[in-house]
Write a structure and sequence with these properties.
about 200 residues; 5 helices
Length: about 200
């Protein structure tokens, strides 16, 4: 500590505002991990099973966690081994992208396990999210044009110097050609109103 103690007089409101801005910038860059749930049944058919496994794989590749739930209804609860066999199959099918974070366990009439992306997949998802955040920041910075900046030619925007309006004499205004909106008089107008020429 310095002797005599050194202090700095500062605007506390400005300090709090800057801290809030720093926190929001850090929040933009962080990756939020969601827990996505996929429900299966002991009687789930092969095609439905494959479809749901593809979805789980997509969730994991995005950097999220997946909760795989087997729902037992009625007398199905007596055959818990069917549910654990399905969870084992899911684990085998996703072993290249997932690790088991929570082993299968029962909770009421449901058996579930939680899968997390393995370190390589998680790192890839974080890198991709960081690149997207940087691209969004560049687009936001590039899209705004600073105010008061002159265009590349050095002349202010607006009319070019050579285009000066010609002054009209104060006497007669220019006569315009008769337009379609103005009523016409004479035999041509009467023929037009009657519906044809005679």
């Amino acid at each position: 500590m310095a002797k005599p103690p050194v202090c700095k007089i500062m605007d506390y409101g400005k300090f709090k505002y800057e801290e809030k801005k720093k926190a929001s910038e850090a929040k933009k860059k962080q990756v939020v991990v969601h827990l996505k749930e996929v429900k299966l049944r002991p009687k789930t058919e092969e095609h439905d099973y494959e479809f749901k496994v593809r979805n789980i794989k997509r969730f994991l590749e995005e950097g999220n966690k997946a909760k795989v739930t087997i729902v037992f209804r009625g007398r199905e609860i007596t055959h818990k081994e069917l549910g654990s066999a399905i969870l084992d199959d899911v684990n085998k099918d996703l072993k290249d992208v997932a690790v088991v974070e929570q082993v299968p366990r029962m909770e009421g009439r449901q058996m579930f396990m939680i899968l997390a992306p393995n370190p390589k997949v998680a790192q890839r998802a974080r890198d991709q999210a960081r690149q997207q955040a940087e691209a969004a920041a560049k687009a936001e910075a590039g899209g705004k044009k600073p105010e008061g900046q002159k265009p590349a030619g050095g002349k202010p925007e607006g009319k070019p110097e050579g285009d000066k309006q010609e002054a009209r004499p104060a006497g007669k205004p220019e006569e315009a050609a008769p337009s379609a909106a103005q009523p016409q008089s004479g035999p041509a107008a009467a023929a037009g109103a009657a519906g044809g020429t005679k």
